[in-house]
Amino acid sequence: MKTIIFYRSSYKGNTFKVAQSIAEVLSAELVSIDTNPEKDLSKYDLIGFGAAINFAAHDIQLQQFVAKQNLSGKKVFLFSTRCRPLLDFYHSPLKKIIKSKGGSIIGEFSCRGYDRTGPWVVVNGYNKNHPNEADLFRSRLFADKIRRKAHPLAAINKSRVIEYLKGVSLRQIGKDRIVGKKVVFLNTSTCVHCGRCLNVCPMHIFTYSEIILPYDESNCIQCQLCADNCPSSSIFIRESFLNGIRIALRESFSDELQNAYQSNNSIKEE
């Protein structure tokens, strides 16, 4: 998934810290709009825009920059740093611009940033030490959530099953053939058969027989290690509240997950 993030950080570097934190998680290209960038956005799957909140809206230069872009059919997220503790309606102006340019907003993030303007000069600044490590940690959690929402397989469970491979459902989207039942999905067309998912999954739900299959997905605990370590982004874990309840109930009222974990890891050690 090719991602680009445009930002403006003109005051204390607050927004740059957040932009950099998000970019690291998404492996995104990070671009300051102050460099007057000219990018062909058709090459990107996901686009981010961020700046400080000035007078109840994103920096005006960022708004003007976004208004010049063609965002038709693009997945977009936005972020900001602000003085006040609550977000309120500050993202609304930029959201209206993005929607008018055809973009689809899939998430937004905001945190406090150090401000020493106006009345705050009296106390030598407000929101001292922000964004702090807790703010940046939340920004990374946000980026991880955005990455999952923008994944090509995020809506695969809605596609029709065309056949079964050893009891595992097979769906097809264009030229891509995706295996998986309800929780774990793997694109066999883009899989490079590196075997990392086989090695990192603590529950060993994957099996290899000509192709890699998520055969025991009922044991999946949604740790995301397989997806995070897949070099071709071919794996998608469909997280949900119901899946979380399923895992909690199995852990509380049976030993199935514990036994599966212990037996699988015993086999691996041998």
Describe this structure in words.
Helix 1 crosses helix 4 (133-149). Helices cover 31% and strands 24% of the residues. The chain folds into two domains: 3-149, Rossmann fold (3-Layer(aba) Sandwich); 156-269, Alpha-Beta Plaits (2-Layer Sandwich). The relative contact order is 0.10. The strands form three sheets. A five-stranded parallel β-sheet has the order 2-1-3-4-5, with helices on both faces. A five-stranded antiparallel β-sheet has the order 6-7-8-9-12, with no helix packed on it. Strands 10-11 form a two-stranded antiparallel ribbon. The longest helix is centred in the middle third of the chain and has 17 residues, at 133-149. It has helices at 14-26, 60-67, 92-100, 133-149, 196-200, 225-229, 241-253, 256-269; strands at residues 3-8, 29-32, 46-52, 75-82, 104-112, 161-165, 168-173, 176-179, 184-187, 206-209, 211-214, 235-237. By secondary structure, the chain is α/β, with parallel strands linked by helices.
Compile the SSE list and pairings.
Blueprint: E1 3-8, H1 14-26, E2 29-32, E3 46-52, H2 60-67, E4 75-82, H3 92-100, E5 104-112, H4 133-149, E6 161-165, E7 168-173, E8 176-179, E9 184-187, H5 196-200, E10 206-209, E11 211-214, H6 225-229, E12 235-237, H7 241-253, H8 256-269
Parallel strand pairs: 1-2, 1-3, 3-4, 4-5
Antiparallel strand pairs: 6-7, 7-8, 8-9, 9-12, 10-11
